[in-house]
Amino acid sequence: MKPPTMNPDKDQKPKKKLDDFIRYSSLGFEMIAIMGLGTFAGVKIDQWLDLQFPAFTLGLMILAVIGAIYHAIRKFL
């Protein structure tokens, strides 16, 4: 009588799905953190310089979005 063999493909599918879920959800949190830090820094610089127009907030928000997209592309390609 042969012992039952384990099917490696069957065990790998749930693990791969979980790995993909963790990978994509962590990317979302990283992007939010990058954009949040950029916005926070811009607000603080605008407050420190006492500017009427939020130039640094807008500039750093745009740079943070570009940086977050760059980070996402670099991480997955």
Question: How would you describe the overall organization of this protein?
Answer:
With 77 residues, this protein is an all-alpha fold. It has a domain at 28-76. The chain is built from two helices and no strands. The chain is rod-shaped.
Q: Give Rg in angstroms.
A: 22 Å
Overall pLDDT metric:
87
> End-to-end distance, in Å?
48 Å
Low-confidence stretches: none
Beta-strand percentage range? under 5%
Total count of helical runs of at least 4 residues: 2
Order of helices and strands: HH
Number of β-strand runs: 0
Principal-axis shape = rod-shaped
Summed up:
The chain has 77 residues and is mainly α.
Give the helices and strands, then pairings.
Layout: H1 8-49, H2 55-76
Helix pairs in contact: 1-2
